[in-house]
Amino acid sequence: MAFSKNALIRYKTIDKCLQNQYRQWTLPDLMEACSEALYEYEGRAVNVSRRTIQADLQMMRSDKLGYNAPIEVYDKKYYRYADPAYSITDIPLSDTDMQVLSETVEMLKQFKDFSLFSELGGIIQRLEDKVYTEKTSQPAVIHLDKNENLKGLSHLDTLYQAIIKADAEPPARPPQSGSNLCRSPERPPTRP
Description:
about 190 residues, mainly alpha, two-stranded antiparallel sheet, about 45% helix
């Protein structure tokens, strides 16, 4: 487990370095940045080897993790992204991934009333919102930070579903001019 976690920390560190187009990154620079990041996360000194960084760069370039990072070498020693806007954290989800996430959200929502899963309510809501945003390419309907003492949180899902449903339905047509809906009820005559 520690190996996988360390690898992910290194990938994110390399990604952050290569996004910085204002600096030229050599293998020793990337080794130092990754060692510092691992020290920050783990609290112990870890010297990342040249071979480890080279393997990480190859893994990031490959399709194994889905990154396909456009890492290029220039002047025979400096590394950068060929696309300055690229980041491993901005990889779009495939249609299959979106379908799996949608099904997972629906499954998790079934457990929302169990006390064991009470902590998952906010996570499920944010995940559902993220899936909706990705599917429709529309801005998020709602985003919350965690607040345990918030009153009325139990009504949030109902409100959220109503907003989503209202966005999906066409707007209601105004009543016709001859309709009885606009007339006020007749009042009984008042006595003087």
